[in-house]
C-alpha cells in the first residue's frame, strides 16, 4: 500500500501543452508529489505564472533540466519534449535508477528502421527493445513491469483502441483500413507557427499530411502485432478549429457473416472492467465534447449493410487519453496503483 503522495514525479518539458496537462493531472493525484518541473524558457518562473489558471494548486518553480538533481528527487520522470530529444536524455535517466514515461515517439517503435524512416537516426536503439508501448488497455501486464514506456501518439490511441480487439478476433480485413481523423489545434503543441496562427485555422477545416503522416507506421506496427500479419492503412488527418479533442472515423471491411452485434460484443468483452473505454449505445456515436478534459475513449459502431462496410467512430481528448492522461494511467500501472487513480473526472454535461 502506497503512502499518500509517495510517488515522486518530475516532468521534463512541463510548460508545453502535454507537459502542462500532466502537471495538472499529477497535482490532483493523491499518490503523487511533483518534485521537479523543467523548462528552458521559464526557468525560475513559478508554473502558475506560466499557466495562471492553475492558481495555488501548482506554485512549483520551473527549473533547467539537469539529470542528476532531477533523478535524486524522483521515482518517475515524464519526458514531454519534442520528438528526437528524449532519446538523448532517457538512457541517463534510466541509468540513474528512475522509471520513465516518454510522451514523444522516440520509444514507441520496436521496429527501429521504421522509426528512422519517419523521424531520424536513433541514438538509443537498444532501449527500443526494452521499451513497452504504453497503450494501457492492451499492454497493461507488460507496462506493470516496465522501466521505460513509450506513450502512444494521440491519433494512434484513437484508432488502435477500436481496431485492436477486432483485429485480434479476426473480425475485420486488416489489409484495407481507411482512417479519417480530426484533431484540435493543441495537438500541434504550444510553439507558435504559421500553421496554427488564429487566422489560418479559425472558421476553416483542412486535411494535412494526406497519406504521409508519421502516425500511420506507428498504427501499422501495433495493429500488425494484434492481427498477426502485416496490415495496410490509409490515414488522413485533419485540423479543426477547436483547442482540444480528436475524432477518428475508421472504415474497414468485416470478414464474412460478421454482424454489428458481433463487433459490439467483441469490443464489450475486450474492454470489460476497463474504465476508460466506453462503448456508445446502439445507434449512438461519440462527440469530442463528451470526453473533453477526461481520459475516456468513446467508441461508436455501425455496420453499413448496403456497402458491407464497418464504421467505427472514436473520440478522445488529445491532451488526456491522447497524451498526459494515458501517461498517468501508465504510471499507475507501473507503481501498482489503481489505473484510474487521479483520472476519475466526470465529463462536462455540456
Ligand atoms: N500536444 C498533443 O496533443 C500531444 C503531444 N504529444 C507529445 O508530447 C511531447 C510534447 O508535445 P507538446 O506539449 O505538444 O509540445 P510543446 O511544443 O507544447 O512543448 C514542448 C516542451 O518541451 C520543451 N522544449 C522544447 N524544445 C526543447 C529543447 N530543445 N530542449 C529542452 N526542452 C525543450 C518546451 O519548453 P522550453 O522551450 O521552455 O524548454 C516545452 O515545455 C511531444 O513529443 C509530442 O509529440 C503526444 C501526444 C499528444
Ligand atoms: C494537430 C497536430 O499537428 N497534431 C500532431 C500530432 C499530435 C501529436 O502530438 O502526436 P505525437 O504524439 O506523435 O507528437 C501532428 O499531426 O503531428
From TrEMBL:
Q: Name one Pfam family in it.
A: Semialdhyde_dh
Tell me which HAMAP family the record gives.
Answer: ArgC_type1
Task: Spell out the protein name for this chain.
Answer: N-acetyl-gamma-glutamyl-phosphate reductase
Instruction: Give the organism, scientific name.
Output: Desulfosudis oleivorans (strain DSM 6200 / JCM 39069 / Hxd3)
**What role does it play?**
Catalyzes the NADPH-dependent reduction of N-acetyl-5-glutamyl phosphate to yield N-acetyl-L-glutamate 5-semialdehyde.
Q: Which GO terms describe its cellular component?
A: cytoplasm
EC number(s) per UniProt? 1.2.1.38
Where is each Semialdehyde dehydrogenase NAD-binding domain found? 8-146
What CDD domains does the annotation carry? AGPR_1_C (cd23934), AGPR_1_N (cd17895)
Where does this one sit in the cell? Cytoplasm
Q: Enumerate the UniProt keywords alphabetically.
A: Amino-acid biosynthesis, Arginine biosynthesis, Cytoplasm, NADP, Oxidoreductase
Of which family is this protein a member? Answer: Belongs to the NAGSA dehydrogenase family. Type 1 subfamily.
NCBIfam families reported for this sequence: argC (TIGR01850)
Class of the enzyme per the UniProt entry, highest EC level = oxidoreductase
Q: Which GO terms describe its biological process?
A: L-arginine biosynthetic process
Keyword GTP-binding in the entry? The reply is: no
UniProt xrefs under InterPro entries: AGPR (IPR050085), AGPR_AS (IPR023013), AGPR_dimerisation_dom (IPR058924), AGPR_type-1 (IPR000706), NAD(P)-bd_dom_sf (IPR036291), Semialdehyde_DH_NAD-bd (IPR000534)
Reaction equations catalysed? N-acetyl-L-glutamate 5-semialdehyde + phosphate + NADP(+) = N-acetyl-L-glutamyl 5-phosphate + NADPH + H(+)
List all membrane-crossing ranges: none
Pathway field? Amino-acid biosynthesis; L-arginine biosynthesis; N(2)-acetyl-L-ornithine from L-glutamate: step 3/4
Alphabetically, the GO molecular function entries are: N-acetyl-gamma-glutamyl-phosphate reductase activity; NAD binding; NADP+ binding
Q: According to its UniProt record, which residues of this chain constitute the active site?
A: 154
Amino acid at each position: 500500500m502506497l503512502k499518500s503522495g509517495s510517488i515522486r514525479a518530475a516532468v521534463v518539458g512541463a510548460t508545453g501543452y502535454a507537459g502542462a496537462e500532466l502537471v495538472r493531472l499529477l497535482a490532483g493525484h493523491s499518490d503523487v508529489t511533483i518534485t521537479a518541473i523543467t523548462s528552458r524558457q521559464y526557468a525560475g518562473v513559478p508554473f502558475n505564472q506560466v499557466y495562471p489558471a492553475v492558481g495555488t494548486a501548482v506554485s512549483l518553480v520551473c527549473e533547467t533540466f539537469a539529470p542528476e538533481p532531477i533523478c535524486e528527487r524522483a521515482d518517475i520522470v515524464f519526458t514531454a519534449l519534442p520528438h528526437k530529444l528524449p532519446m538523448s536524455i532517457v538512457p541517463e535517466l534510466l541509468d540513474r535508477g528512475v522509471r520513465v514515461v516518454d510522451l514523444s515517439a522516440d520509444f514507441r517503435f520496436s521496429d527501429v528502421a521504421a522509426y528512422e524512416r519517419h523521424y531520424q537516426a536513433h541514438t538509443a536503439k537498444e532501449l527500443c527493445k526494452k521499451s513497452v508501448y504504453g497503450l494501457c488497455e492492451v499492454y497493461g501486464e507488460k507496462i506493470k513491469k516496465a522501466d521505460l514506456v513509450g506513450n502512444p501518439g494521440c491519433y494512434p490511441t484513437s484508432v488502435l483502441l477500436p481496431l485492436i480487439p477486432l483485429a485480434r478476433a479476426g473480425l475485420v480485413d486488416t489489409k484495407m483500413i481507411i482512417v479519417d481523423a480530426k484533431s484540435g489545434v493543441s495537438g500541434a503543441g504550444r510553439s507558435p507557427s504559421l500553421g496554427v496562427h488564429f487566422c489560418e485555422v479559425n472558421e476553416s477545416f483542412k486535411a494535412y499530411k494526406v497519406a504521409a503522416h508519421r502516425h500511420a507506421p506507428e498504427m501499422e506496427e501495433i495493429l500488425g502485432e494484434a492481427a498477426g500479419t502485416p496490415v495496410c492503412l490509409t490515414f488522413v488527418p485533419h485540423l479543426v478549429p477547436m483547442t482540444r479533442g480528436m475524432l477518428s472515423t475508421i472504415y474497414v471491411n468485416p470478414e464474412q457473416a460478421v454482424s454489428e452485434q458481433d463487433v459490439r460484443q467483441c469490443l464489450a468483452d475486450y474492454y470489460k472492467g476497463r474504465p476508460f473505454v466506453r462503448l456508445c449505445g446502439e445507434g449512438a456515436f461519440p462527440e469530442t465534447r463528451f470526453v473533453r478534459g477526461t481520459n475516456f475513449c468513446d467508441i461508436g459502431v455501425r455496420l453499413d449493410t448496403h456497402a458491407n462496410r464497418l464504421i467505427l467512430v472514436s473520440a478522445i481528448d488529445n491532451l488526456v487519453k491522447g497524451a498526459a492522461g494515458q501517461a498517468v494511467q501508465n504510471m499507475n500501472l507501473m507503481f501498482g496503483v489503481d489505473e484510474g487513480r487521479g483520472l476519475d473526472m466526470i465529463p462536462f454535461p455540456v
